[in-house]
Amino acid sequence: MSEVSTAREIGAAEIAALLERIQAGDREAFMAVIRLYQQKVFVMAYSILRDREDALDTVQETFLRLYQKAGLYKPGSSFQGWLLQMAKNISIDHYRKHRKKRQEWETTTPLDDIPVAAEPARDGDSAATDLRHAFARSVDTLAERQKMVFVMRHYNELQFNEISEAMKISVGTAKSLHFKAVQNLRKRLAPVLGIEP
Q1: Which of 7, 64, 99, 140 has most Cβ atoms within 10 angstroms of its Cβ?
Q2: Per-residue model confidence as pLDDT tens digits over 124-153
Q3: For the domain 111-192, what is the CATH code?
Q4: What is the pLDDT of residue 125?
Q5: Which residues of the chain have pLDDT under 50?
Q6: Quick check: 139 and 111 in contact, CB under 8 A?
Q7: Beta bridge partners of 77
């Protein structure tokens, strides 16, 4: 099987084949799935936990859980949605367990420090950097479900049906939360962009 570089390039049949190989103990197939999805799982975990180390722990735990439960995936549904639902649940459990520690050591790392596939600002382009910081701070202030939908849609590039599956909400609710998130971001960024909200 040829090496695939992104989750977008892999089809349902290929995922099913990889999962079968994982169930048979194939380490290479497991590593291939990790390479395809670790960035998306990290973004999901970080959007909830707001701490790089905690997010990395959650990524590790998510893939360990995948290794143990690969046989539970139902072909025909979105594998990415299923995996991110698992990551979300593990992240929330981790957050609850470590809430006291989080209150004492609350991180200030903004969303724009997440290594996503976006083009980095060129050296000396401070206006672009300032805008990125303002945008990340605005995303951080969104209500939890709005933020989650926005992150899944724009950082993880999920379709609304995949978001609804991962969050266990209807497609209409996912679209509504996304719309509200965009409206709120426009209002918050209007002063920075110098436009009417």
Answers
A1: 7
A2: 456 556 667 777 778 888 888 888 888 888
A3: 1.10.10.10
A4: 52
A5: 1-8, 102, 104-109, 114-124
A6: yes
A7: 75
- Distance CA(23)–CA(58), nearest Å, equals 21
Report yes or no on whether pTM surpasses 0.85: no
Q: Which residues of 170-179 are buried (b: 16+ CB within 10 A; e: fewer)?
A: eeebbeebbe
Residue with tokens 């303002």: 134
- Write the DSSP assignment of 90-149 as a string of letters: HHHHHHHHTHHHHHHS-----GGGS--SSPPPPTT-HHHHHHHHHHHHHHHTS-HHHHHH
What pLDDT was estimated at residue 44? Answer: 87
pLDDT of residue 124: 47
Place of tokens 């990524």: 59
Angle at which helices 52-69 and 79-97 cross, to 10°? 130
> Residues 149, 126: contact at Cβ < 8 Å?
no
Closest CA relative to residue 57, chosen from 41, 33, 37: 41
Domain 1-109 CATH (choose: 1.10.1740.10, 2.60.120.260, 3.40.50.410, 3.30.70.250):
1.10.1740.10
Number of Cβ within a 10 Å radius of residue 60: 15
